[in-house]
């Protein structure tokens, strides 16, 4: 039997703060979906300017927007703050580490990111040979592949949908995403990484893992995982619907 409204509300005794790109329509939906299976955790959201097809700071983070979003979330005193965005996979993981450190220094609250979550999740499983699926354009995909190679990953297969506008990433059909996963699975990577937090691939992770026999790690789900991992929350109940990342 589903809990009553009052039971569901009172169960949420742990708070996480989530910073999402302003042009993103996926992060909140995926976060809320996953946390239905972790009912003691409540997510609280803030946004930073990331939209359109042109990034005014293509090789770094403009930290002012992130710090402003983090400052507002800090008023609610969450246990952790997480940047649920994937830009670090194209500019270098060190930028995410520096951003998390700046947020923590300003707010006094531990901070992490989707990309730092990716690094941790792959390291915990000893995974270095990956396939990468994204909604990106040719140039965006190549930038991500080059960066991941620099970070020590062997990207043995890739597929990308050819989109360049941030908002449009959410419009890639699920059937197309599934077909891209199938195409890269032929190379038998240790894991498939679906990269971009405005890309709705997280909803396919569990069924595609069953079909392909390969773990699927989605960066939007990784943002949630990173926050839950940071606070030591039990997330195993999310695994049947959201994949082995949460097992």
CATH class category label of the largest domain:
Alpha Beta
- The main sheet orders its strands as 2-1-3-4
**Helical residue percent band:** 40-55%
Mean pLDDT: 95
How many domain units?
2
Q: Into which percentage range does the β-strand content fall? A: 15-25%
Major sheet characteristics: 4 strands, parallel
CATH architecture field of the largest domain? 3-Layer(aba) Sandwich
CATH topology of the largest domain: Rossmann fold
Tell me, briefly, the overall form. globular
The end-to-end distance, rounded to whole angstroms, is 24 Å
SS class: alpha/beta
How many alpha or pi helices? 11
The value of Rg in angstroms is: 17 Å
Which blocks of ≥5 consecutive residues have pLDDT under 50? none
Number of strands: 8
Pattern of helices and strands: HEHEHEHHEHEHEHEHEHH
Compose a concise summary of this entry.
The protein is α/β, with parallel strands linked by helices and 247 residues long. The protein has helices at residues 5-11, 27-35, 63-74, 88-91, 93-107, 114-125, 138-150, 174-185, 205-212, 219-231, 239-242; strands spanning 14-21, 41-48, 80-83, 111-113, 129-136, 154-163, 191-194, 216-218.
